[in-house]
Design a protein that fits this description.
By secondary structure, the protein is of the alpha+beta class. It is built from 7 helices and 15 strands.
């Protein structure tokens, strides 16, 4: 019988294991409510984007439930301009993208949750994460996590989350590319790079959620990018809540991350809402980006 998430975390620090398991439980609460949390809210987030009802509710649910654990000190969420103080005696600081790809809800395409976990106070470099994870709501619900000991995937069943694949390694050679932003706004060298991938037979897969697109690259190999654009030189994705957790996961799976110059995990954040170009995938494909 496949290991449960709890069994798989038996050798992990007990409080960190509890936090990962708890986030998985909260994720299933959110999943069960998504059919009833549709439409736009009458507010905008810190980035000026119109919030969806599901965005706001998922954010509130995660924060309320994590507050009850007693071990979370602060939370940085995409939906809040400032650090959310939870418990001064808490041990962990958490970053949240509470509902990545939420615009996909109306068309029933993949959405998910992205989480980074730290002992150091935020903001700090992504290399200081003690764990990172994401939950993907697709045809099935899956949970992928790392506690710096490899990348492991779990499938939601009636027995809870059970092990689907242990010690995932990004396949070589990469088969896919997934690119955000309008092609007309790509930088010339980047456009040449993508044309080179296309000429070698790489297939385009892009679904509009970082979680869903990243998950395909993790399992099939290739590269995901929301690059620097002529209209957005700093890219679109948020450094703390999106880029840091996914970069830790891809590097733990034998891949690489970059902002075009260096590993994303090495970036020193200047503020909570900083954006960055993101290139994550097979090491050789990311190396070629940096050489541009």
């Amino acid at each position: 019988m496949a290991k449960t998430l709890k069994e798989h975390l038996e050798t992990t620090d007990s409080e960190l294991a509890f936090l990962i398991i708890k986030i998985g439980e909260i994720a299933n609460i959110i999943s069960s409510e998504l059919p009833y949390r549709r439409g736009k809210a009458d507010t905008k987030n810190v980035f000026g984007e119109v919030q969806l009802v599901a965005d706001k509710w998922a954010d509130e649910c995660l924060i309320d439930e994590l507050r009850k654990t007693g071990i979370v000190k602060t939370i940085v969420s995409e939906e809040h301009p400032d650090i959310v103080e939870i418990n001064k005696q808490g041990r962990y600081n958490v970053t949240l993208d509470p509902l990545d790809g939420s615009s996909n809800i109306e068309t029933n395409n993949s959405v998910g949750i992205i989480v980074g976990i730290y002992k150091e106070d935020l903001p700090t470099q992504g290399k200081h994460q003690v764990a990172a994870m994401y939950i993907l709501y697709g045809p099935t619900t899956t949970l992928v996590y790392t506690t710096l000991n490899g990348v492991h995937e779990f499938l939601w069943t009636k027995e809870g989350f059970v092990l689907r694949e242990e010690n995932i390694k990004i396949p070589e050679p990469g088969r896919l590319y997934s690119i955000g932003g309008l092609r007309k706004d790509w930088l010339p060298k980047f456009k040449e790079y993508i044309e080179g991938l296309e000429n070698k037979g790489s297939k385009l897969r892009y679904g509009g959620s970082f979680v869903g697109d990243f998950n395909q690259v993790l399992h099939y190999g290739g590269i995901f990018s929301y690059p620097a654009l002529t209209s957005k030189p700093q890219g679109k994705l948020r450094l703390l809540v999106e880029a840091f957790p996914m970069s830790l996961i891809i590097e733990q799976a034998g891949g690489a991350s970059s902002n075009g110059e260096k590993s994303i995990l090495e970036i020193e954040p200047k503020n909570l809402n900083q954006r960055t170009p993101v290139y994550v995938g097979n090491q050789n494909l990311v190396d070629k980006i940096e050489k541009l």
